[in-house]
C-alpha cells in the first residue's frame, strides 16, 4: 500500500550518522521533508550534500534544555506543520556500576531522557491543533534485558519505553500516536569497532540471536518508517524489537 507521505515534515535527532542517518535516508526516499538535528556540523553538511533540498540540517546540542522551546517554535515557523518526530539521539557510557558518578549518570539521562521529553512536549504542542502526528522513540535491547556496565544507558532506555506508553495513553485520544523501536545488535561504524575489539562479546551476541547475524541501520529505518506512516494508523504505545530475535534468544 502506498503511503501518503509526500507532504509531510519530520524531525530526526542524531540523524547525521548510524541508525539516524538510515532513518533520514528512508524518509527522504519517501519524499518526506526531513529536519536533521545534530551536533557535528561537518557530518550535518555531509548529510545535506548527500540528500539535497528535502534535507534540512540544524546544529543543536539537545542537552541545552532551555533552548528547546525556542528551537521548535522556530522550526515550526520556518517549515510549517511538524508531522513526525523521531527521538534517535542518545549517548552511552561503558563503566562498572560502582564507578559511575552521579554526574555521569545524570549526563546520560539528560540527553537520553530529559531532552526527549522536552523536545516531544514542544513538538506535541504544534501537533495538537491539527489532531494528528506520529512520534517514534528509539530505545535499545538494553531495556529488554540486563547488560553489564551500561547502567546509565539502561536506565535511560527503560525510561524511554515507559514514556512511550504513558505518552500514548494520554496523546492518542488527540490523534497523536507514540511508538518505540528497540534495536538489537546493528552494524554501525561504532558497533563494528567495539565488536572487533571484543570477539568473545561478538560471538556471545551472535549465539543468542536466532537469525544468526547482526542487523543493518536500514532494518531499523524500515520499522521507524512504518510507525511514522499511515500504515500504522491503528498502532500506538508499542515497543518493537528489531533484533533478529535476540531479546527472545537463548
From TrEMBL:
Does the UniProt entry include the keyword Oxidoreductase?
yes
Molecular function terms, GO-annotated:
oxidoreductase activity
- Per the UniProt record, one Pfam family is adh_short_C2
Q: Where are the transmembrane segments?
A: none
Domain of life per record = Bacteria
What keywords sit in the KW lines?
Answer: Oxidoreductase
Protein's UniProt keywords contain Oxidoreductase:
yes
The protein's matches in PANTHER family, at most eight in alphabetical order, are given as: OXIDOREDUCTASE, SHORT-CHAIN DEHYDROGENASE/REDUCTASE FAMILY (AFU_ORTHOLOGUE AFUA_5G02870) (PTHR43639), SHORT-CHAIN DEHYDROGENASE_REDUCTASE FAMILY PROTEIN (PTHR43639:SF1)
Q: Family, per the entry?
A: Belongs to the short-chain dehydrogenases/reductases (SDR) family.
Annotated protein name in UniProt:
3-oxoacyl-ACP reductase
Amino acid at each position: 500500500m502506498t503511503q501518503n507521505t509526500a507532504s509531510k515534515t519530520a524531525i530526526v535527532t542524531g540523524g547525521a550518522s548510524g541508525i539516524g542517518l538510515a532513518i533520514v535516508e528512508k524518509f527522504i526516499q519517501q519524499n518526506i521533508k526531513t529536519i536533521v538535528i545534530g551536533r557535528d556540523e561537518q557530518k550535518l553538511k555531509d548529510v545535506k550534500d548527500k540528500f539535497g533540498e528535502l534535507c534540512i540540517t540544524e546544529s543543536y546540542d539537545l542537552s541545552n534544555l532551555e533552548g528547546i522551546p525556542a528551537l521548535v517554535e522556530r522550526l515550526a515557523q520556518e517549515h510549517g506543520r511538524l508531522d513526525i518526530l523521531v527521538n534517535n539521539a542518545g549517548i552511552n557510557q561503558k563503566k562498572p556500576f560502582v564507578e559511575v558518578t552521579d554526574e555521569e549518570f545524570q549526563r546520560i539521562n539528560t540527553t537520553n531522557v530529559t531532552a526527549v521529553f522536552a523536545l516531544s512536549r514542544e513538538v506535541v504542542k504544534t501537533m495538537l491543533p491539527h489532531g494528528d502526528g506520529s512520534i517514534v522513540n528509539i530505545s535499545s535491547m538494553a531495556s529488554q534485558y540486563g547488560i553489564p556496565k551500561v547502567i546509565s544507558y539502561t536506565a535511560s532506555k527503560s525510561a524511554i519505553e515507559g514514556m512511550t506508553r504513558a505518552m500514548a495513553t494520554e496523546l492518542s485520544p488527540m490523534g497523536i500516536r507514540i511508538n518505540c523501536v528497540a534495536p538489537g545488535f546493528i552494524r554501525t561504524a561504532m558497533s563494528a569497532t567495539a565488536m572487533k575489539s571484543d570477539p568473545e562479546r561478538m560471538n556471545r551476541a551472535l549465539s543468542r540471536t536466532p537469525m544468526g547475524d547482526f542487523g543493518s541501520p536500514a532494518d531499523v529505518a524500515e520499522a521507524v518508517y512504518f510507525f511514522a506512516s499511515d500504515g500504522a494508523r491503528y498502532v500506538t504505545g508499542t515497543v518493537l524489537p528489531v533484533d533478529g530475535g535476540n531479546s527472545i534468544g537463548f
